[in-house]
């Protein structure tokens, strides 16, 4: 059990799998916004890849550990202390019983993942421990004073991996154009332009600022029936500024999708911060 002392802007319980295959029921996949980072943190402490951990946005998290634990951080490199003493992010850290762990604000990236050996053992909902902030499924958003259960430690020892590689943060996202790129007068403008991440972002998606993506004349007065969308869909509302859907995206949308971010690069998108620039590079199926 760990006791949460502070949460920062937002802390949620997440796993890497989420709830796939239930879009017909109106249930999105959810799961970690940066799945690679959570899987890496789990690997560092010897957990199974699908063990639940904490997704911490912009640091500010603190917790007390009544019993000794092994933890690891991955993703945005938030500075970490144990009882006021600096510890190394991106490598296993022993937290003695009775100690407090605190995270500062990461200098880059948005989301830091905290894995505890044994995993965060909240009750699964529809096969996942992930918090879906839109559907309200899974555990509640973590709050100050919450007590989070920790599962039994794996039988195998902590693996001999002492340092995780730094996350990729080059600001380029690979996309497949379509399915509605023909709705725009100049779809190549989407690829030519540098886009700026606005402060309107969350686990659902992030809005981008840049040139207006004008609809083709044939579609200026046409309404698109709602159709399915996936993680990484780049939807363009009437403002002409795109939105990139992330982990807690809706299962349907009524605006044309000009492109879809390659699934692996949605983890990179999940670490983008307001004010950062992003470009899109076309790849082919």
Task: Provide key terms for this protein.
285 residues; mainly beta; Cyclophilin; 2 domains; seven-stranded mixed β-barrel; six-stranded antiparallel sheet
Helix proportion of residues, in percent?
A: under 10%
Distance between the first and last residues' Cα: 46 Å
> Quick one: how many beta strands?
20
**Percent of residues in beta strands:** 25-35%
Spell the H/E element sequence: EEHEEEEEEEEEEHEEEEEEEHE
Q: What number is the mean pLDDT? A: 94
Q: What form results from the Cα inertia axes? A: elongated
Number of H- or I-type helical stretches: 3
Estimated structural class? mainly beta
The spatial strand order of the largest sheet comes to 12-19-16-17-14-13-20
Low-confidence stretches: none
Major β-sheet profile: 7 strands, mixed, barrel
Number of domains: 2
Tell me the Rg in angstroms.
Answer: 20 Å
Describe this structure in words.
With 285 residues, this protein is mostly beta strands. The chain has two domains: 2-148, no CATH class; 172-282, Cyclophilin, CATH 2.40.100. Helix content is 7%, strand content 31%. The protein has helices spanning 35-45, 188-192, 266-269; strands spanning 2-7, 10-14, 53-57, 61-65, 69-75, 80-82, 85-87, 93-95, 99-103, 111-116, 147-148, 172-177, 195-201, 205-209, 227-228, 233-235, 243-245, 252-253, 257-261, 277-282. It has a seven-stranded mixed β-barrel with strand order 12-19-16-17-14-13-20. Strands 7-6-9-4-1-11 form a six-stranded antiparallel beta sheet, with no helix packed on it. Strand 6 and strand 7 (85-87) form a beta hairpin. The radius of gyration is 20 Å and the shape is elongated. 43% of the residues are buried. The model has no long low-confidence stretch (mean pLDDT 94).
